[in-house]
Write a structure and sequence with these properties.
Length: 239
């Protein structure tokens, strides 16, 4: 495996350097996607020079768009796998070896970091959105996952290929899970630590992003009948 880390970021200047430094301790190849930040992100990235790779554009287009840009860049550089980690400081880079160990055992799998949704400082809106998303994921794929909303994952880039996605924001991570399940890509959850600081900068919009996720689930329930389940059946027969 040739592994890189992808860090999508938008206006997280307070935590970005800490996240990059921590990730570099475990993965020497780091790609930061600057999703149209308007704070000091550009200056922070410039300080790293050639220690990291950067993808930047002027207009904020959403986390999903940033992830896809990172995936394409990673593939162009010959990477076969990518660990994605948020830049707001909620994830712990010390969990990266567990992702790599799981991927080494099953290189074709998508490894998903699973948070403890019952921990004391878990935001209530996150818990509700995740349970809602988990339920519809099971309906659409006949599989169960403990955390379908986490951004801490290890993606098998070659197995995913140039996956056609119809979303560009937070719901993209759910879309990738569903489409991966339909393709027959194994999904492996592993436990990860998470920390939500009181002054954490988040760009998740509870109302509008929940509406977008709900619309996506409606479309995918229909697609599951005419495309998803038939394809999974074919994959099962072939295996």
């Amino acid at each position: 495996m040739n592994i890189c880390a992808i860090i999508p970021t938008y206006n997280n200047e307070r935590t970005l350097s800490w996240v990059i430094d921590e990730v570099l301790c475990y993965i020497p190849s780091v790609i930061v996607v600057n999703d149209g930040s308007t704070d000091g992100t550009g200056s922070i990235l410039a300080e790293y020079g050639n220690r990291i790779m950067t993808v930047s554009y002027l207009t904020n287009k959403g986390k999903g768009y940033a992830l896809c840009k990172g995936f394409r860049y990673a593939l162009s550089k010959g990477f076969t796998h990518a660990v994605t980690i948020d830049s707001d400081g909620q994830h712990f880079a010390e969990n990266i070896p567990a992702f790599i160990e799981a991927a080494a055992a099953r290189p074709q799998a998508l490894v998903i970091g699973s948070r403890n949704l019952k921990q004391t400082n878990m935001p209530e809106k996150n818990t509700f959105a995740n349970r809602f998303s988990n339920f519809w994921f099971t309906v659409q794929t006949a599989q169960r996952l403990p955390d379908t909303q986490t951004g801490y994952r290890l993606y098998p880039l070659l197995q995913m290929g140039r996956m056609r996605l119809c979303t560009t924001r937070y719901e993209t991570e759910l879309e990738i899970l569903v489409r991966s399940a339909w393709r027959g890509i194994p999904l492996i959850p592993i436990p990860v630590r998470v920390h939500y600081a009181l002054n954490r900068v988040t760009h998740f919009r509870p109302f509008w992003d929940f509406v977008r996720i709900s619309l996506l689930n409606t479309v995918f329930c229909l697609l599951a009948v005419v495309y998803g389940y038939p394809r999974m059946l074919v994959n099962f027969i072939r295996s």
